[in-house]
Input
Amino acid sequence: MKKIAFKTLGCRLNLFETDALVSQFSKKEYQVVDFEEEADVYVVNTCTVTNQSDHKSKQVMNHVNRLHPGSLRIVTGCMATNYKQDLEKSDKVDFVVDNDHKSSITSLVDAYFNGEVVTPDSFAKDLFGYQAADETFHTRSLIKIQDGCDNFCTFCIIPKVRGRATSRSKEDILENIRQVVEFGYKEVVLTGVNIGRYQDGETDFEKLVEEILNIPGDFRVRISSIEPDGYSESFFRLFENPKLAPHMHICLQSGSEDILLKMRRMYTAKAFVELGENIRKRYPDFNLTTDVIVGFPGETEEDLQETLDVSKRVSFGHIHTFKYSVRRGTRAERMPEQIPDKEKTRRSEQVRQLSDDMKRKYRSSLIGKEQTVLVEQFDEEGFATGYGEHYVPVIIRKKGLQRNEFYKVKLTELILKDEPVLIGEILNS
Output
């Protein structure tokens, strides 16, 4: 039995694709081992959204080449797509597999060990050619519903490395979810590049989610990162269904109207604030989290302050903060008034501090309330840990609980570990 190891960087879409590959290799009787162990094959699923992402991806590839030069080394993902020709010239990699051919990695490895002379391009392109994964690295089951993007934001390289927007067929998605629910998964996460723009015939994102919620079974649905456009006001009625987790990660990027225009975002800061206020009027405990980019070309102190002000008005449960990173070939690369890195770091620290304050405030507001926690793992004391429906981390101070099971708890206090974590006590059933 040959051994294979995976390392995944970047977004949930990459995680879905790695999970699917793990499941496929397991069915073919490969032994999936930890990335630090000795293996016959190493697969690095890369990210290229920022310079830091490129750096981390290169570090991992160098690590494999240094410690395991005799193994089969495969690099895939967005960095592999963006720098395919350069990587193919390197002696540190055996196969460079772009995103279009990622689903064929199992066939590629089989052919290699059978002595066949093949390349990744020997196989057909298939963005959705992944089987439902029954063995993964996660308790949640990630479900890819869409790929690519047509927005062409001035800072973003994703349309280049993921291509134009394309949606998976509704029936394939529904069947995928039925299968993973049968496998025993209690939570499914809808993922893609721009999932709010999902469209399969007459089925848009709202109708798709509605059909998913009608699938029988004891599971909940979570929506991963989404743009603040592409769904109607009526979409939010769906959160009345207890299967749909009351949490959305909606990408703000900036609270400055001027910067949003320069970014070529498809909404205004004013509309974003109204969206957040309308959600909270309907669901007061709803957890809204977001992404913010600081140091975009031409961003002033006033622009930064507008981002901080908008964030306070929306009262995010968390802000994922990025320093603007120049991506070759984007319009923002050519813009004047590029911000020095030291200044980007200072500004990002301001946003992170605000994020930490809002995170503690939001999680503290849940004390005394109930959450349904999906147990994912156990801490050093043997207590169960997992996430409630609002995507807040909870420690259940009771031993003997089961992984991948729901438990109803009352939140009693907030403690500080690596981040603020809530303590839950199991309610009598």
Observations:
- The first strand starts at residue 3 and ends at 8.
- The mean pLDDT is 94.
- The chain is about 30% helix and 25% strand.
- The CA atoms of residues 57 and 422 lie 33 Å apart.
